Amino acid sequence: MTFTTRGPIVDVEQVRTLSQLDEKALATKQVRDQELAAILRGEDKRILLVIGPCSSDNEEAVLEYAKRLAALQEEVKKHVFIVMRVYTAKPRTNGDGYKGLIHQPDAAGAPDLMAGIKAVRHLHYRVITETGLTTADEMLYPENVSLVDDLVSYMAVGARSVENQQHRFVASGLSTPAGMKNPTSGNLSVMFNAIYAAQNKQTFLYRSQEVETSGNPLAHAILRGAIHANGKNEPNYHYEHLLEAIAAYEKLGLANPFIMVDTNHDNSGKQYLEQVRIVRETLLNRDWNEKIEQSVRGFMIESYLEDGRQDQPEVFGKSITDPCLGWNKTEQLIREIYSHLEK
Predict the structure, then answer these.
(1) Residue 11, Cβ density class (10 Å: 0-12 exposed, 13-18 middle, ≥19 buried)
(2) Is 47 left (phi over 0), alpha (psi -120 to 50) or beta?
(3) Is residue 232 part of a domain?
(4) The CATH number of the domain where 95 resides is what?
(5) Mean of pLDDT over the chain
(6) Buried b vs exposed e over 323-334: b needs ≥16 C-beta within 10 Å?
(7) pTM for the whole thing?
(8) Residue at 258 is within a domain
(9) pLDDT tens, residue order, the chain (343 aa)
(10) What would the DSSP string read from start to end of 10-65?
(11) Does 8 reside within a domain?
(12) Count of domains in the chain?
């Protein structure tokens, strides 16, 4: 083996003592987690928005965004429930590029995973305690879940991870909702097999121990589009795609048939302005078909302070990974969703 040890074994219990929520913040989080679960179960009919930067690369920019989002949440809470994307690990198919806060707490600096772990906890902690919002992250590394699961309220399993058995099994033991994306091929059977696995009890090795999970009934579908064989993006948020996903839920008899539309990635072709149009079309499809209205009740939106993206962290609040909607367009879109539901 060619592994070289670069640091000490991580003491998970010690890490969890860092940036711990106090009694007041924990109570706020618990209330919001209960509301989120009720939305996933269909008991609360509000629209769920999982929204925020593609990657949380700058603590102060993320906090500025969170404060604006929290104020807007208060205005639209009658019809819209917001969980903020605080994504701290980014998948890289060839290993190159920015891999997230956990790898590089300084986006312009060298990797430092021990400092990154602390930075990840501190960022989630600050968003919760300073704004009252709860947060979402991506479960890129299943073995790292225990480092943040007391702070995070929503976990997503990405398109390149959803076929992995460890991701599916760990998702079955989460106490938070687990959004399972369709793979980049667009194969819905893969995604629904992942949801089935996550919703059921599993026994497996985790962190060098045999464990058993109880199953996660809040595991659900995220439609994020696909990459066609010719390299072009292929959306899967249109009317017929939504009905196909609903039928798959019914065929497998899965619990809590909740569908979230990812408005960026291969649904938009990473044309970030298209996210607005995709939301509008989906809202109209909900109006047109009762089944869609009952099941399609969430959007995942990539949004930051400034429009677009940049290669280096030069402009405050502008993405260094996928392009995002800027704040002004984000605010307009959320108000538009609210107004549509108010009718």
Answers:
(1) exposed
(2) beta
(3) yes
(4) 3.20.20.70
(5) 95
(6) bbbbbebbbebb
(7) 0.97
(8) yes
(9) 888 888 888 888 898 999 999 999 999 999 999 999 999 999 999 999 999 999 999 999 999 999 999 999 999 999 999 999 999 998 887 778 898 999 898 888 888 888 889 999 999 999 999 999 999 999 999 999 999 999 999 999 999 999 999 999 999 999 999 999 999 999 999 999 999 999 999 999 998 899 999 999 999 999 999 988 777 889 999 999 999 999 999 999 999 999 999 999 999 999 999 999 999 999 999 999 999 999 999 999 999 999 999 999 999 999 999 999 999 999 999 999 999 999 8
(10) P-HHHHHTTT---HHHHHHHHHHHHHHHHHHHTSS-PEEEEEE-SS---HHHHHHH
(11) no
(12) 1
Distance CA 309, CA 319 (A): 5
Task: Give the separation between CA 59 and CA 125, rounded to whole angstroms.
Answer: 11
Whole-angstrom Cα distance, residue 165 to residue 183? Answer: 14
CA–CA separation, 177 and 153 (whole Å): 7
SS3 293: helix
210-227 confidence digits (pLDDT tens): 999 999 999 999 999 998
Query: How many other CB atoms are found less than 10 A from the CB of residue 67?
Result: 14
Question: Is residue 204 within 8 Å of 211, Cβ to Cβ?
Answer: yes
Specify whether the CB–CB gap between 179 and 185 falls below 8 A.
no
Whether 7 maps to a domain, the answer reads: no
Chain-centroid distance of CA 141 in Å reads 14
Alpha-carbon dihedral 149, 52, 267, 47, rounded to 10 degrees: 80
Would you say 298 and 276 are in contact if contact means Cβ atoms under 8 Å apart? Answer: no
What is the C-alpha to C-alpha distance for residues 171 and 169, in angstroms, rounded to an integer? 5
198: Cβ contacts below 8 Å, ≥ 6 apart: 168, 169, 171, 172, 178, 180, 215, 216, 219
What is the full DSSP assignment across 88-100?
Answer: -----TTS-S---
| Strand, coil or helix: 302 | strand
Q: Tell me the per-residue pLDDT of 246-258, one tens digit each, with 9 for 90 and over.
A: 999 999 999 999 9
Which range of residues forms the domain containing residue 105? 17-342
